[in-house]
TrEMBL record:
Protein's UniProt name: Putative succinate-semialdehyde dehydrogenase [NADP(+)] 2
PANTHER family for the chain: ALDEHYDE DEHYDROGENASE-RELATED
Record: active site: 250
Swiss-Prot/TrEMBL catalytic activity: succinate semialdehyde + NADP(+) + H2O = succinate + NADPH + 2 H(+)
Keyword Plastid part of the UniProt annotation: no
Residue span(s) of domain Aldehyde dehydrogenase: 21-477
Family annotation (Gene3D superfamilies): Aldehyde Dehydrogenase, Chain A, domain 1, Aldehyde Dehydrogenase, Chain A, domain 2
EC number, UniProt record: 1.2.1.79
Amino acid sequence: MSPLTYPMVIGNHRPPVNPDRALEVRSPLSGDLLGLVSDATPAEVHDAVSAAQHGFDETWRYATGSQRAQLMHRLADLIDMHADELGGLETADNGKLLRETTMQARFAARNYRFFAGIADKLTGRTIPMDNLSTFDYTLREPVGVAALITAWNSPMQLLANKLAPALAAGNCVVVKPSELAPRSTIRLAELIEEAGFPPGVFNVITGGHQAGAALTADARLGLISFTGSVATGQAIAATAAKNLVPVTLELGGKSPNIIFDDANLDRAVIGAVAGIFAASGQTCIAGSRLLVQSNVYDEVVEHVTERARTIRVGDPALDTTQMGPAANMAQHKRILSMIEVGLSSGAKLACGGGAVRDPELPDGLFIEPTVFVDVDPASRIAQEEIFGPVLSIIRFDTEADAISIANGTEFGLAAGIWTESLSRAHRVARELLAGMVWVNTYRSSAAQAPFGGVKKSGYGRERGLEAIDPYLRTKNVMVDLSDSVRDPFSIQT
């Protein structure tokens, strides 16, 4: 039986997958072949940008905000209707729990509704001038064609963070999902067509490095928005700089989750577990460094370790499963290699420490929930992003110590604070170098709340009102209302 193929979307054309240039999508649970996608050629990438540019020039730039909003609401309704299907595709592709991927699909729909509400409210300003005979105003216009590049861990949600503001602002897009988990994005293209979006508004290319490099090097782009690794983000930013194309980057993290001695420890322990073991730790906001104040350190270590040992690892489609597999073979090897780094660094292994050995899970890429204690803040496992279910617990004494350790990496994406002191919560939140700070919670999201990083975690913001700004350009219009004839050799103010 021939494997299923998932063609790209280029305008109103879906070129068949060339078996000679096909990439396999495989299950991290079983290793089974799930389907084939195209490895796009530079010519096909060029065609996709051309289709987006044509769609923008011919139709989409002339759609009113209310028309865009109406289509976005239709799309959100369709996503809600197909959330189980979309979640199932993602779970099969990347091993994430089905109940989470389904919820992420519904959260994606919420994002489209949020930005649909903004689409007809993108107003400019009238600006009072020193010269009363001059009338000045601004227009906020779409950038044109945006390249949206997403990662394999949360394709639908990551895409919604980018696509919703892009559409609301009036842009056409070329999307490149990860070649490891592309199927939900290709299915979304069908829902976008069903919702009534014109051809060329939403284009999908698939492929590996060559396809991504061809896309980001296209000088016709008005914006590149990327989620992924630091190294790839740096390469994209360097390429985009040559063409002076703006870039927003949501990159890695090594987020501190800080438990002070006055915290509600029952809640804090659950927050620590959620921060690192949810989604098998394969999330940029993973609270992979747990900073614990000395006089509650032993108690927290005991309870976190005890909870980690009881996590049910298995089939992500089952309601009883709490942690699924690593998403792909390369990531599985990376996680195991970093565990070995931790073992050789002198950190104490409290639980886990290797691949799952279970006869009921013979083929999956499973990693044991792993906890290291007494970790040196300067060690590799405390400094480098692992992107897996590996927790480093670090002791601190004072509030100043906690802030210093928390800020002591090259990343600055997210952070958590656990304390019953209102003043401490606000004081520490102000000092942390992070784009997102949670207090007495962790790994919570809202369409209205802006998200992004500092330092090597990237720049720009997704979600919230701030997210639409990169997808718009400001144009100034100045009108001379007087009847006077100016001096042509002197600037007029």
